[in-house]
Amino acid sequence: QVQLQESGPGLVKPSETLSLTCTVSGYSISSGYYWGWIRQPPGKGLEWIGSLYHSGSTYYNPSLKSRVTISVDTSKNQFSLRLSSVTAADTAVYYCASTKFGYSYAEPFDYWGQGTLVTVSS
Amino acid sequence: DIQMTQSPSSLSASVGDRVTITCQASQDISNYLNWYQQKPGKAPKLLIFDASNLEIGVPSRFSGSGSGTDFTFTISSLQPEDIATYYCQQYANLPTFGQGTRLEIK
After folding, report:
1. Which of B46, B54, B87 is the best mutation test for A, with the most CBs of A within 10 A?
2. What is the pLDDT of residue A55?
3. Which residue of B has its CA nearest to A109?
4. Exposure of A54 by Cβ count < 10 A (0-12 exposed, 13-18 middle, 19+ buried)?
5. For the residues B3-31, what does the mean pLDDT come to?
6. Which residues 26-65 of A have a C-beta within 8 angstroms of B?
7. What pLDDT is recorded for position B17?
8. Distant-in-sequence, close-in-space partners of B41: CB < 8 Å, separation ≥ 6
9. Which of B106, B55, B53 is nearest to B82 (CA)?
10. Closest chain B residue to A99 measured between Cα atoms?
11. Chain A contacts of B44, Cβ < 8 Å?
């Protein structure tokens, strides 16, 4: 059973960089599948941020692309999200997730982390 | 981006009722459409993928249909544990989600 767990600061100051890590257990990231980040502002809907393959290939939402970096550390079986120049609009629950089939970054997400709330405030 | 229009935004129904949610894509997405259930404080859960395929372990009262631009999600007999928000998601292109349907018990 694949399990994902997000970790990182719960409070980030405006204009700074949000950094989160997703630790995967029960499966080796280097074995395949695509791994992604999705966020949900309080009381609102879901927004895909971006995804990566274990090889390091990345795919980003164009609306966030200029500020987002997703990277992988296969030795730790982790992948990470960095979002720069944050504002209050980036306050959200951030989820990491994995795709179902492993053929494309744009697939159903079948395993999700529990989510972590990140608040942007001074 | 492909826009997903989900309706209704909220729905109140009684236990045992048949419940239907629709999702319309702004362009043809074939059958690249998923449905998720999200309970308060929890991560979304994949229920249906590729428009009509039930995820393993999901009760058979949940079903999905459609192709192209128009899709339907149905709960054949609403149970108390089905209270949640439901989202459609397309993956023909960059993944996008519908705005969600909040389902309540009447």
Report:
1. B46
2. 85
3. B46
4. middle
5. 97
6. 45-48, 59, 61-62
7. 97
8. none
9. B106
10. B46
11. 46, 95, 109, 112
pLDDT of residue B8: 97
Residue B81 is predicted with a pLDDT of 97
CA distance B84 to B87: 10
* B92 Cβ under 8 Å from any chain A Cβ: yes
Shortest Cα–Cα distance, B89 to chain A (Å): 8
B39 touches chain A (CB under 8 A): no
Residues counted in chain B: 106
Instruction: Tell me which H or E stretch contains B59.
Output: none
Handedness of CA A97, A103, A107, A108 (dihedral sign): negative
Rounded-to-integer distance, Cα A111 and Cα A101, Å:
11
Residue type for position A58: T
* Number of other CB atoms surrounding residue A66 within 10 Å: 9
Q: Measured in whole angstroms, how far is the alpha carbon of residue B18 from the centre of its chain?
A: 14
pLDDT (mean) for B50-68? 98
Residue from the list B32, B42, B99 with its beta carbon closest to the beta carbon of A45: B99
